[in-house]
Design goal:
With 117 residues, the protein is mainly alpha-helical. It has one domain (9-112). Helix content is 56%, strand content 0%. The protein contains four helices and no strands. It has helices spanning 9-28, 36-58, 82-99, 109-112. α1 (9-28) packs antiparallel against α2. The longest helix is centred in the middle third of the chain and has 23 residues, at 36-58.
Length: 117
């Protein structure tokens, strides 16, 4: 088994959407009955990709994070002016704040964290 080649930045974002949709379909689709372990695997996978997308849309980027706020990293053959970039970033932060209630500690990472008390 070997690690696949790194996708382009744009393909990485698309991959996150694709995996989120795939996991959702496995959990909510009319497929065969999943075992408890299979359900847990798909729930964790769904949450992981969901968290990645929430961070892409609303987390302040650091280092080499892909972010809606840095469209030059992922856009393809499309100019994004400064005002549109500001709007994307502002709207992304709004989405993240809606789905990650940081002050209350109600975050996705709480469900994906290592074994703690």
């Amino acid at each position: 088994m070997h690690r696949p080649e790194k996708l382009s930045h744009r393909q990485t974002v698309i991959y996150e959407f694709d995996m989120l949709e795939y996991c959702y379909q496995k959990l909510a689709g009319p497929s065969k009955k999943l075992t408890r372990y299979e359900q847990n695997v798909y729930i964790e996978c769904f949450l992981l990709h969901y968290q990645n997308l929430i961070d892409f849309f609303g987390k302040e980027p650091t280092r080499d994070d892909l972010s809606i706020c840095r469209p030059d990293d992922w856009r393809q053959n499309r100019q994004i002016d400064e005002q549109e970039q500001k709007n994307l970033c502002k709207d992304g932060k709004k989405v993240r704040n809606e789905y990650e209630n940081l002050p209350a500690g109600d975050t996705i990472s709480r469900y994906l964290q290592p074994c703690t008390q």
